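Narrative summary of target 7.
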Amino acid sequence: MNLRALVVDDETLARQRIRHLLKRAIDIDVAGECSNGLEAVKAIEDLSPDLVFLDIQMPELDGFGVVEAVGADRMPPTLFITAYDQHALHAFEVHALDYLLKPFSPLRFHQALERARRWCTRQTAEQGPDLEALLAGLRQERPWVDRLLVRQGDRHVLVKTAALQWIEAEDNYVRLHVEGTSHLLRKTMTGLLARLDPAQFRRIHRSAIVNLDCIKEFQPWTGGDYLVIMRDGTRLTLSRTFREQFGEWL
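Modeled conformation, tokenized:
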């Protein structure tokens, strides 16, 4: 049975070249193509490809954003396509299935493809590439996100982090409050906070993170806690546990 591949790159010529190189592989079919990260997330969920060729540098939602949106544990085997320098490539060498450094030769392409083919067809419980560790290793290159991908009905939309007013924990999700509406995102509070600029976002309670630009006032409350009044009127609690980080304000 042939492997089904998804090709993701914002450059038309780059997608055409990968398709051309794949014609030599009689056991691989191109299941689809995507020109941006939003399309890629939907295609991965809808098509369940066996293998993904994923460009890293794409506008709006890049390759890392695709992995984060789909979930590192739910990503199909992935061949990353990148223009990263040799220093950053160490993370790929340690944690990724394989990568193609632009510009790559046909020989290098088929070497990576053969490695991916062996991985996709092996029948083993051996642990796969650690994409969580890969993302963590590369976050030094891009520490804070400026957009988050959220589901809205049967679509995915990008939300600018600057538009977030506050965030609350909700079971295994977080709820993003944005200008009169909200979105559920499958992340932990700790994991999301690590991706947000600490100059703009701070945790005030185990179940709440706020955008500092959206705070109207603080009011002393009981037991050393404070009420945090947001500009939209929302009343939140600043617990004693997190009060120290607001020392210059309080």
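The chain has a mean pLDDT of 87.
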